[in-house]
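Because discrete structure vocabularies remain unfamiliar, it helps to consider an illustrative case, giving the amino acid sequence and backbone structure tokens:
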Amino acid sequence: MEINEYQKQAMKTWSKRLTGEQMLINGVMGLCGEAGETIDLVKKHLHQGHELNKERMIEELGDVCWYIAELATYLQVDFSEILDYNIAKLAKRYPEGFSEERSLHREGEEQNGNQN
């Protein structure tokens, strides 16, 4: 499925009761909640002896995507625009691919609080 088509399909299940900032808050809170569910699966796998539940992980990642689609819709951008922006940022940051040296010495980003 094409990513922008996913956004359109996902938003068919969006609550039309949410307006303005409610949509923003719901999207961010949902994104954090679903990310928490994915880390819980990893925690159980790494520290509690559980097998990594791939099916649940895929389900939770899908939920993460749903909330990103909701936030993109709130921002009035296509999901693909978010992905394009991220790839451009990464290409600028790591033009030769990831390196620990560039990660440790990123100009201008640390003072802005952006350390991803």
